[in-house]
């Protein structure tokens, strides 16, 4: 446990619940359908749709929150980096992302 904690402290980040959910799902399921998760390039794409980070907290934009966490010196999730990893996992496991659809190449 020391090594895991030390790595988290040095990186200034911690893994999201989405990370742990996909790990569990890959172990327990033959196929996974992920609904409503944007990919790592969505927030930089032209015409992306602004949506609240949490449906119960109006005013906090999802993409702004992702960029804030991605660049936080400590205490953040690396959401964008995690999504890059999820895309790599989808090449080796049956993971399908919809709404929006991901192109996994």
Automatic annotation (TrEMBL):
It is a single-pass type II membrane protein. InterPro entries: Glyco_trans_29 (IPR001675), GT29-like_sf (IPR038578). It comes from the Eukaryota. The keyword Hydrolase does not apply. It catalyses: a ganglioside GM1b (d18:1(4E)) + CMP-N-acetyl-beta-neuraminate = a ganglioside GD1alpha (d18:1(4E)) + CMP + H(+). The keyword Amino-acid biosynthesis does not apply. GO terms for molecular function: alpha-N-acetylgalactosaminide alpha-2,6-sialyltransferase activity. It is found in: Golgi apparatus membrane. Its main location: Golgi. Keywords: Disulfide bond, Glycoprotein, Glycosyltransferase, Golgi apparatus, Lipid metabolism, Membrane, Sialic acid, Signal-anchor, Transferase, Transmembrane, Transmembrane helix. GO terms for cellular component: Golgi membrane. One of its GO terms (biological process) is oligosaccharide metabolic process. Belongs to the glycosyltransferase 29 family. This is Alpha-N-acetylgalactosaminide alpha-2,6-sialyltransferase 3. It comes from Hirundo rustica rustica. The lineage of its organism: Eukaryota, Metazoa, Chordata, Craniata, Vertebrata.
């Amino acid at each position: 446990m020391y090594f895991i904690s030390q790595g988290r402290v040095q990186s200034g980040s911690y893994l999201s619940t989405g990370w742990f959910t996909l790990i569990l799902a890959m172990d327990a399921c033959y196929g996974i359908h992920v609904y409503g998760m944007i990919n790592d390039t969505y927030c930089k794409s032209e015409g992306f749709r602004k949506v609240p980070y949490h449906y119960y907290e109006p005013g906090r934009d999802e993409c702004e929150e992702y960029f804030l966490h991605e660049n936080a010196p400590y205490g953040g999730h690396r959401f964008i980096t995690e999504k890059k990893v999820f895309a790599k996992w989808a090449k080796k496991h049956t993971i399908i992302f919809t709404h929006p659809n991901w192109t996994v190449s």
